[in-house]
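Chapter review: from sequence to fold.
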Amino acid sequence: MKEKLMSLSQAVDLIKDGMLLAVGGNGMHRNPTLFSLALTQRPVKELKVCGAAPGIAADILFASGQADTAYFGFFGLENEAGLAPGMRKAMEGDEPKAKAIEGS
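The token string follows.
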């Protein structure tokens, strides 16, 4: 049987430009935050992120400029912290660097 466990760096090395990442967790809970932080050290770009309620792990990818599209139902950092600042900054401005495709 093939080994299913790998190191964080091995997992991050699997990510290529333009991939769609299903980011787990919900808002500020059970997010793969260390994975996203490790990914910011790699030169990947144009990532797509999807999740029911992506939170801080996905927001890190927008803040780093590595993600450019989000598919979601709600994208925020819970009631206390509000909307995800990395995603919001990437989508605002004269020349948005990202787009959102909100679920129905």
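Two observations follow directly from the output. The chain is about 30% helix and 15% strand. The helical segments are 8-13, 33-39, 56-63, 78-81, 85-91.
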